[in-house]
Amino acid sequence: xxxxxxxxxxxxxxxxxxxxxxxxxxxxxxxxxxxxxxxxxxxxxxxxxxxxxxxxxxxxxxxxxxxxxxxxxxxxxxxxxxxxxxxxxxxxxxxxxxxxxxxxxxxxxxxxxxxxxxxxxxxxxxxxxxxxxxxxxxxxxxxxxxxxxxxxxxxxxxxxxxxxxxxxxxxxxxxxxxxxxxxxxxxxxxxxxxxxxxxxxxxxxxxxxxxxxxxxxxxxxxxxxxxxxxxxxxxxxxxxxxxxxxxxxxxxxxxxxxxxxxxxxxxxxxxxxxxxxxxxxxxxxxxxxxxxxxxxxxxxxxxxxxxxxxxxxxxxxxxxxxxxxxxxxxxxxxxxxxxxxxxxxxxxxxxxxxxxxxxxxxxxxxxxxxxxxxxxxxxxxxxxxxxxxxxxxxxxxxxxxxxxxxxxxxxxxxxxxxxxxxxxxxx
Length: 427
Description:
The chain is mainly α and 427 residues long.
């Protein structure tokens, strides 16, 4: 395998997967926030809560719509750049990817469409059920993705036939500890991302002395009171994963801990088992990613703990402008933590794409450096434009604040919702 093709293929997948991950983190968390707020709005039937559903729901829809395009693009790469992986292990990890596609596109997207266009057409309880179906199928989508990724990091439930991996024990694959621990870690991290996002956007409007002070005061508290428990749960799952590395991926654990003697021993064992080669992952990426993740966690821990205390005082929520600036500046922290954690997880298993079974260099498609370079340029440019577009759309809508137009708006001012006999301004 041409080393240039290998490096370019790895760089392309790292950039596109990381870019897609940025969308997924906010989508999962914000969907949950919207679903919970809509539940409160449906039960309490207060206009303020209904407006919060529409405002934060609009931001969720924007992030979802742009993010789904990045997910489609990512799927193409397995066939184009990593044909060796799909040929060797596609019978196992490809099945969960197929289920994820069905769940994401045929269930989640369908009910999201019904939720978007179903305002004032469905009974309020039916409409509430739709957003919960969207949220739960989003969780399922994340789970199936992590089943695939968990198999790559800790292959279980397979047997070898004709030089290929074949599914042998579906239960083992579905309950893979590498997948389950990552699933809990990702879901909590997504809620953390949404909490920081909601608090940061709300702080922006409170800092500018918005007339919607009650709306954004409540939203800020939602973001702050969500962030702290989400961070704690994220840390628990992260700590369990780190402890499990000594068993699942001892080389990654040794590199992160800088245990030189242990690294040399594991390298010698792997050479004896798999033949000559360098089985030590890059310390810069593995240890560096892990340390950045832990540093972000420490900053967010102090930040969220102080935030919970400050948010208990109304005067602070509405008038402490220095805190508002800090909340705005802190929005990127969970993104940075999740991306660095992803780098630690993926870079640390090198040189394996399927740990202990298939090396990365054997999984790359037989492409010329020129073709791979052109693919990298196209994919990177596309993803860069999508990230910029998403950021611009989110910022544009977030700055506008809650308005009468947009998601869930009905031009029939003063008329009743025919589906529910409720005023269109309430839930």
